[in-house]
Amino acid sequence: MSAASQPTIVATMLEQLQAEPGHHVLELGAGTGYNATLLAHLVGNDGQVTTTDVDDDIVDGARAGLAAAGVDNVRVILGDAALGYPGGAPYDRIIATVGAYGLPPAWLEQLAPHGRLVVPLRLRGSLIEPVSDTAPGV
Fold first, then answer.
1. Which terminal residue of the chain, N or C, has fewer Cβ atoms less than 10 Å from its own Cβ?
2. Rounded Cα distance, 62 and 67, in Å
3. Contact at 8 Å (CB) between 4 and 27?
4. How does pLDDT run across 101-111, given as a tens digit for each residue?
5. Is residue 135 a part of any domain in this protein?
6. Containing domain of residue 26, as a range?
7. What whole-number distance in Å separates Cα of residue 112 and Cα of residue 101?
8. Is 5 a catalytic residue?
9. Catalytic residue among 2, 5, 126, 132
């Protein structure tokens, strides 16, 4: 597994996500909470960010960092990112800040119609082009 934490990668992924005020966003891979803080700013007071991580220590650290920064529209959930977080679905935007070898079905199931999913796919050296689909739930 690989984290997408280099500033230029973070900026590119957030640009591709196109999060807007009022959006409901799921972040897969909480890390330090830095990316969730940026997302919280993008979605504003009317939006909500849910971030997940499988590691207790990372979840605790993200919660502490978000609290110290005064960010109150982010909830940090302990859980397997491959399962998403169905308790908050559907999401207008989903962003994975960890590399993945595929798209778990839960991510697509939890994406709102006309939503947007950004994930750094690890394709073992293959070059791919962006794909877009406007079908409901994709």
1. N
2. 8
3. no
4. 788 999 999 99
5. no
6. 19-97
7. 22
8. yes
9. 5
